[in-house]
Amino acid sequence: MSVTAPQGFDAAGIAAGIKRSGALDLAVVVNRGPSQAAAAVFTSNRAKANPILWSEQVVQDGAVAAIVLNSGGANCFTGPEGFQVTHRTAEAAASALGVSAGDVLICSTGLIGDQLDGEVLEEGVLSATNRLASDEAAGADAARAIMTTDTKPKTVEVVVDGWRIGGMAKGAGMLAPGLATMLVVLTTDAVVDAAALDAALRRATRVTFDRLDSDGCMSTNDQVTLLASGASGVEPDPETFVEALTTACRDLAVQLQADAEGASHDIAIEVRGAVTEDDAVEVGRSVARNNLFKAAIFGNDPNWGRVLAAIGTTSAPFDPYLVDVTMNGVRVCHAGRPDRPRDDVDLTPRATHVLVELHAGEASATIWTNDLTHDYVHENSAYSS
User: β-strand 337-338 against 154-160: which pairing, if any?
Assistant: First the structure.
């Protein structure tokens, strides 16, 4: 049921006329609960879209009444006029809902550099707020309205004793750390204050969305928002809440990976035996961003030499001549030398697992990526909103 699964939330998704295709392109999620606690994390790209600049200010006091999301245009590098469109959108939502514009988050996704029509957005917000509902259909429409090159909506629901977490996400390309070209809205009816939400969200995203590195390209519009209505009346143990939130984020991250643009393999790069977790992440990411490795996986070629070449570019402490590499359960490299024949490796399944054992320490991490395909190149050569 997506964002409407927890108590206290209404949602809507409509076709406002932003996309030329006439598809759903504007979503609104409203917190109706006794609490309006919120937290958000944003892209670490210094080039930030206008909605990010707006939302970074809104969330500072930890109170959010609603969030408006549009697809069909990023509203990035659109100057003062673009920021005014964001402001106007928030004002329209605030007026329709009887809240302050300073409590309305804005998210946009789509092509960078095109102006959005403020009047179209304003009318769309008014139309969407008239259709707000708490049922499954409303949550489904909202999830579809934020899609760009996605082929399917991404939703999640985690049920815990007496409370829930719901969520929706979009993203199919530019999936890289510092989030991913993704917009994510997570909702919960648990009783959790803003400070605890912020801490939990940062812990959850660090090991989920920030480990998703589909193509090494960082977006200007990434935002993950967590809203708490408190409508269940249940205050969970902090660690229980973090565990449930991490489960929800991981589920959405895997859905994003599976729908990455043009991908034919979903690759999990597991690094073990690093000195620190950060070292393991650096090593895993070096493989995930290596186009030679990604092209080899596309061709079902277990070219483990490209793995060693990639990890050798990192600053992580390890001896490359002690490294083992295993692909889909077959150890093809042992101590920096050939082990079992490459022909023993079956890379035809979509799910691909690469294990890199550094033998330098006890830390580990997993990075999720995809292969590099003809379809990815074609889609990104022809993409526009």
Answer: unpaired
Whether 279 and 317 have beta carbons less than 8 Å apart is answered as: yes
DSSP 8-state secondary structure symbol assigned to residue 73: B
107-142 as b/e: b if 16+ CB within 10 A:
bbbbebebebebebbbebbebbbeebebeeebbbbb
The alpha carbon of 131 is separated from its chain's Cα centroid by a whole number of angstroms, namely: 26
Kindly report the number of other CB atoms within 10 A of residue 238's CB atom: 13
| % of the chain at pLDDT higher than 90 | 84
Q: What does the alpha-carbon distance between residue 341 and residue 343 come to, in Å, rounded to a whole number? A: 5
CB 302 within 8 A of CB 347: yes
Question: What is the C-alpha separation between 78 and 108, in angstroms, rounded?
Answer: 12
pLDDT of residue 66: 98
- Over the stretch 169-214, which tens digit does the pLDDT of each residue have? 998 654 444 544 589 999 999 999 999 999 999 999 999 999 988 7
Q: Give the number of other Cβ atoms within 10 Å of residue 348's Cβ.
A: 10
233 CB-near residues (< 8 Å, 6+ apart):
191
Distance CA 179, CA 198 (A): 16
Q: What is the pLDDT of residue 347?
A: 96
Report CA-CA distances (Å) from 170 to 70, 255, 371.
11, 9, 20
Active site residues: 181
Residue recorded with tokens 């997570």: 186
Tokens representing 194 are 């803003």
Helix (H, G, I), strand (E, B) or coil at 223: strand
pLDDT of residue 53: 96
Is residue 319 within 8 Å of 325, Cβ to Cβ?
Answer: no
* Angle (CA) 191 197 202, round 5°: 155
Helix (H, G, I), strand (E, B) or coil at 55: helix
* Residue 384 to residues 46, 146, 325, 353, 377, Cα–Cα distance (Å): 23, 15, 39, 33, 14
Short-list 323, 322, 318, CA closest to 307: 323
The three-state (H, E, C) secondary structure of 171-191, written as one string: CCCCECCCCECCEEEEEECCC
Q: Which string of DSSP letters, residue by residue, matches 251-267? A: HHHHHHHHT-TT-S-EE
Nearest to 208 by CA among 240, 234, 182, 236: 182
How far is the C-alpha of 345 from the C-alpha of 51, rounded, in Å? 46
